[in-house]
Design a protein that fits this description.
It is a single chain. With 161 residues, the chain is of the alpha+beta class. It has one domain (4-157): endopeptidase domain like (from Nostoc punctiforme) (endopeptidase fold (from Nostoc punctiforme), Alpha-Beta Complex). The protein contains 5 helices and 6 strands; from the N terminus they run E-H-E-E-E-E-H-H-H-H-E. It has helices at 16-24, 76-88, 96-101, 116-126, 142-151; strands at residues 4-12, 31-36, 39-44, 53-57, 66-74, 155-157. It has a 6-stranded antiparallel beta sheet. A hairpin with a 2-residue loop joins strand 2 and strand 3.
């Protein structure tokens, strides 16, 4: 059976906010994007790479202090469901309430807005790649996502579009 790779790219920038997010989430990274059609697709709170919210941005759109890319081969229908979910989120706003609070009891599966790791986790669940992940609403951090993605069998690859 043929497999298609889902690729996620974690990064930490050089700014204070990036370092704070990495520290508060107890990890090395502060942001995660899907590598999709040669672009980086994810949710951001700033205009770096072309605007706020959920959208495709150029690969790479910002200098990184640290990068990790993991790839998970899946069946083509799962890949298509994952991709379709992400594309359907295009233009939605950034979830600034949850990112600042990491504890305001917001249901991270509420699709009205996203921050980076919420979006990627929701796409994996929506596609049926993983079952509902049991984590508190405020704990879908880049670290939590990397643990789930690794447990699914993802492996490290070279950083490239």
């Amino acid at each position: 059976m043929s497999r298609v790779p889902i690729r996620l790219r974690w990064r930490r920038g050089s700014g204070l906010s990036s370092a704070a997010i990495a520290w508060f989430s107890a990890g090395q990274f502060s942001h995660v994007d899907a590598v999709l059609d040669g672009t980086l697709y994810g949710a951001r709170s700033d205009n770096v790479g072309g605007g706020k919210g959920v959208r495709a941005r150029p690969y790479p759109y910002e200098k990184s202090e640290a990068v990790m890319v993991l790839e998970l081969p899946v069946a083509p229908q799962l890949y298509q469901a994952w991709r379709s979910f992400l594309i359907a989120q295009n233009g939605k706003p950034y979830d600034s309430t949850a990112i600042w609070g990491f504890g305001l009891d917001r249901d991270w599966r509420d699709p009205d807005s996203w921050f980076c790791s919420e979006l990627q986790m929701a796409a994996l669940e929506a596609a049926g790649i993983c079952h509902d992940v049991i984590v508190p609403a405020y704990k879908v951090t880049p670290v939590a996502l990397s643990a789930v993605f690794s447990a699914l069998g993802a492996y490290a690859v070279t950083d490239s579009p």
